[in-house]
């Protein structure tokens, strides 16, 4: 199954990541609305990498579970990590002066959301969306 | 890439035709406000029909442009938000921050600004 990795360092990489995401979502068979949700979620998560970390990557792949198909996006960075994940997932929480809806927004737009973070090491966010 | 800012009577029209990086959005914000200041525009229309993604940064930037334009005496209307983009913005949780006037298309946006002027 298809998989693509986008190295993320600068703001231009955010656009690259979401273009790859949209193309792959389209190929998997997602409709326009879901493509927009997935692309927007990728944009929020990739931007978090640019803002909080020096570098990171976004891996986008097609996934399958039984007869269900979907898309998985794994965002990994070498940033400072998140001290309080619960707080970070609250609406309006921000450490970088944004709207504080990046991560919660991405969570709402996708079907599954998982975050792991180690302070001083980095953060990994995994989101999935399934074809209906 | 410089985004052209058109002037029609006392209204400025900005059409965003491709995806912009964060830096390009910031540059555009500055250029627009500069132009309002220079020509004394009373209205500003930002057409985002071509945008297939509006994330929280873009939304926040559009808000900031509109608020700053108001301070310079110019009313802003954002036009052309695509249906999928609109729904995604709502789901993203933007109810907390979306305060910009919107219209379906350029024509309706101009109508809003003209009506306001005739009053």
TrEMBL record, chain A:
Assigned keywords, A-Z: Kinase, Serine/threonine-protein kinase, Transferase
GO MF annotation: an example: protein serine/threonine kinase activity
Residue ranges occupied by any Histidine kinase/HSP90-like ATPase domain in the UniProt entry: 33-132
Protein origin, superkingdom: Archaea
SUPFAM superfamilies: ATPase domain of HSP90 chaperone/DNA topoisomerase II/histidine kinase
Gene3D superfamilies, alphabetized: Histidine kinase-like ATPase, C-terminal domain
SMART domains (alphabetical): HATPase_c (SM00387)
A Pfam family matched in the record: HATPase_c_2
Coiled coil feature spans: none
Protein name, per record: Anti-sigma regulatory factor
Organism classification: Archaea, Methanobacteriati, Methanobacteriota, Stenosarchaea group, Methanomicrobia
From TrEMBL, chain B:
Record field: transmembrane: none
Residues in STAS domain copies: 1-94
InterPro entries, A to Z: Bact_StressResp_Reg (IPR051932), STAS_dom (IPR002645), STAS_dom_sf (IPR036513)
Cited CDD domains: STAS_RsbR_RsbS_like
Record PROSITE patterns: STAS (PS50801)
Protein name: Anti-sigma factor antagonist
Organism name: Candidatus Syntropharchaeum butanivorans
């Amino acid at each position: 199954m298809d998989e693509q990795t986008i190295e993320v360092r600068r703001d231009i990489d955010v656009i690259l990541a979401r273009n790859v995401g949209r193309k792959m979502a389209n190929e998997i068979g997602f409709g326009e609305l879901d493509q927009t949700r997935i692309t927007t979620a990728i944009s929020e998560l990739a931007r978090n990498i640019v803002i909080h970390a020096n570098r990171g990557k976004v891996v986008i792949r097609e996934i399958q579970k039984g007869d269900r198909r979907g898309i998985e996006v794994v965002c990994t960075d070498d940033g400072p990590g998140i001290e309080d994940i619960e707080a970070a997932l609250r609406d309006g929480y921000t450490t970088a002066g944004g709207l504080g809806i990046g991560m919660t927004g991405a969570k709402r737009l996708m079907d599954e959301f998982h975050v792991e973070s180690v302070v001083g090491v980095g953060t990994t966010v995994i989101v999935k969306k399934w074809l209906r | 890439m410089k985004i052209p800012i058109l002037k029609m009577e006392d209204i400025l029209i900005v059409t965003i035709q491709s995806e912009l990086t964060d830096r390009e959005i910031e540059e555009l914000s500055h250029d627009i406000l500069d132009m309002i200041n220079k020509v004394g525009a009373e209205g500003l229309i930002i057409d985002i029909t071509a945008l297939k993604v509006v994330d929280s940064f873009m939304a926040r930037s559009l808000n900031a442009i509109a608020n700053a334009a108001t301070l310079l005496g110019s009313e802003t209307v954002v036009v052309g938000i695509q249906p999928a983009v609109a729904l995604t913005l709502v789901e993203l949780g933007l109810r907390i921050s979306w305060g910009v006037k919107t219209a379906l298309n350029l024509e309706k946006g101009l109508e809003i600004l003209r009506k306001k002027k005739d009053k």
